[in-house]
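ingest -> validate -> predict -> emit
validate: passed (alphabet ok, no gaps, 320 aa)
predict: started
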Amino acid sequence: MDMSTIFNIASWAAVGIGALSFIGSGLYTIKQEHQGLVTRFGRHVRTNETPGLKFKIPFIESVDKISLKEYQVGENLETKTTDNLFAQLPIAIHYQVSDPAIFHFKKGDAVELMKKVVSAAVREYTSGKTFQELYDERQQIKEGVKDKVEEQVSGFGLQINDIIIDEPKASDQVKSDFDRVRSSELKKDAAKFDAEADYIRKVKSAEADRDRDLLRGEGAAGYRQRIFSQYAEQIDSLVQKGTPREEAVHVMMEVMKYDTWREASDKGNAFFFSESNGTGTDMAKRLKDFAPLNAALNGKEQVKEQDNKGPAAPSAPAVG
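emit:
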């Protein structure tokens, strides 16, 4: 093989290798959750939206691959509440690219622009809140901010999937003051509860004492009623047997006196009243005021009238 032939073979081999390299440089792949932006001399000519093997003109076209995955960016906002407290409000923005061309070519650092828009909206919503309301209304704040900035952020080629607002953080001094105020409120509530409970216990105890006294009084009254009813029956029995009513009443009064002495002696405390100093007589007068004895004494005048007119009518058969 002469030199010319070898030179021709080498030339064709070099051309083949160069052609393969040229073609190979135009091949590229698009991964899942990505899109490719193809530019020709710096001008966007097409977007490869589907994943797989793609081809571009070597040395003329270039490709920028944009991820469509969801990302998170954080921001720690400082806001002033209506109760004059400066609080740190941590927020986390979950976003993803919705239009790769706008995101890459038109808005520069679109993520930074989105953070500023969201931060301004959060400050607007929280500036009219107290520190406690920042705790209680975080969900409402998130929804309001998301609705407000959604259209503006879409102009950056982005979409916001979620905004997470964490618990507001105050300085250590504010936390200490807040805990002290809250503790004072809890103690005040506990004292109020204890006072109301004590009041209820006292009222219930007084009502129980009142009901017990009423029951005791009713029981004592019933007991006395039964005793005097029995005494009245015995007086009537003596009268029916022929004993003058006045004498029968006197006898029963003596019986009542001795019964009282015996009952007092049985209980260990005996109080004796003698008729010689008038005390016994007064007691007898007071005992005669009871209804059962008055009923027994009602026939006294009738007995006197019968004595004046003559012999009384035959008495009823003796009882017992």
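The beta strands are 27-30, 34-40, 43-48, 52-55, 61-67, 71-80, 86-97, 158-165.
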